[in-house]
């Protein structure tokens, strides 16, 4: 089992203990994926964390896309925009950066 800044991660890079999450860990995960986190990334990461806190589940991509469209507008609530931020998948990579478990339905 690997670790990022002292936090244990599973073989896919998801935190083992969700309580270990920090902005620094998210930044390191992004750096490891050659992604530079912008304000737009943080909008989605914070949305994912709020969603998880409310529903206790990481949203699947379709649910995520619809929920973001509802909150942030159709220009951000679409697959093209979300994949431009998270090229390895807005659900999987976004949730990993947000310190959440892998969404159900993600391979």
UniProtKB/TrEMBL annotation:
One of its GO terms (molecular function) is sulfur carrier activity. The keyword Transcription does not apply. GO terms for cellular component: cytoplasm. The keyword Transferase applies. InterPro entries: DsrC-like_C, DsrC-like_dom_sf, DsrC-like_N, DsrC/TusE. One of its GO terms (biological process) is tRNA wobble position uridine thiolation. This is Sulfurtransferase. The gene is dsrC.
